[in-house]
Design goal:
Layout (H helix, E strand, L loop, with lengths): L13 E4 L2 H11 L8 E3 L15 E5 L5 E7 L2
Parallel strand pairs: 2-4
Antiparallel strand pairs: 1-3, 3-4
Length: 75
């Protein structure tokens, strides 16, 4: 499978970019700083074509319904 299509694979969880406001709300809700959020590289195959920017938060929804958040960092 081409890297640019990896995000479409059935085993790759859904990734959704959050707006700046939504990201700030999540940080406030969980009372954490950006540096405490797990990281994901900007060039991660799951983010290809999404236009993710360094410092942006990504919501990752797994098949079991669990939701996690990742901070986009340089590759």
């Amino acid at each position: 499978m081409a890297e640019r299509e990896a995000h479409k694979h059935e085993l790759v969880p859904e990734h959704k970019l959050l707006s700046k406001e939504a990201g700030e709300e999540i940080l406030s809700q969980f009372r954490v700083s950006r540096m405490q959020i797990p990281k994901i590289k900007a060039k991660d195959a799951a983010l290809v074509g999404m236009g993710a920017k360094i410092g942006q938060l990504v919501e990752v929804t797994r098949q079991d319904g669990s939701v996690n958040y990742r901070l986009v960092v340089e590759s």
